Amino acid sequence: MRASAVAFVALVIVACGGTKANDDASVASCPATAPADSSKCSSEGTECEYAGPAAYCGDVLTCMNGAFMDSTSSCSLPVAPCPSTSAGVQIGQACTTKIVCDYPDARCGCVAPSGPAQVDGGGMTWSCTTAQAGCPAQHPALGTTCASEGQLCDYGACVFGDNPYSSAIAEKCAGGIWVRASVPCPA
Fold this sequence. Notes:
- The protein has 187 residues and is mainly beta.
- The protein has one domain (2-180).
- It has helices at residues 2-15, 157-160, and strands at 19-22, 25-28, 47-54, 57-64, 67-70, 94-95, 99-103, 106-111, 124-129, 152-154, 170-174, 177-180.
- The strands form four sheets. It has a four-stranded antiparallel beta sheet with strand order 6-9-8-7, with no helix packed on it.
- A hairpin with a 2-residue loop joins strand 1 and strand 2.
C-alpha cells in the first residue's frame, strides 16, 4: 500500500509538469503547449521548442530568471523555396541563397563548403545529411522526452554551421529530455 502511494505521488508530480529523478539528473518538463512569454518556470536554462512556421524553424522558449523568455533569434521563412522532397535536391549543384530545408528523411541546404577558405571564394552548393542510426529521423523538439541517456544526434552541425533558424542542429538526451549539444567538427 505504501509503495503504491509513493508511486502515485511521483506520477502526479511528473504528470503536472514537475520534475522526476533520473539517475544523476532531474528532468524538467516543458508544458504541452507553448507558455506565454514571461510566464513562470522553475528549471533554469531549460529550452522548450514548439512548432513554428516550418519544421526547421521552431519557437524556442528558455527558462531564465524564473520566467519563460522567447529565445528565438531569427525565425523567418527562407527567401528561396526548398525543393519539394529531398530526392529533388541535386547534391553538389551550385546554389546562391543560404537555406536549410527539413524533410522526413533528411536535412538539406545550400551551404558554403566547410574547411579552409577556398582560393576562388568557394561558391555554395546543395548538401544533405541524415540522422545517424538510433536517432529520430527529424530533430526532436528541445525539451521533449527521450529514453537513451547520453545519446547524441547530429542533424548537420558541421555541414550547416550557424543555423539561421532557431532549431538545434545537434541534440543530446540529457536528464531525460532533448537539449542542444555541440559536436566537434573536422578541421
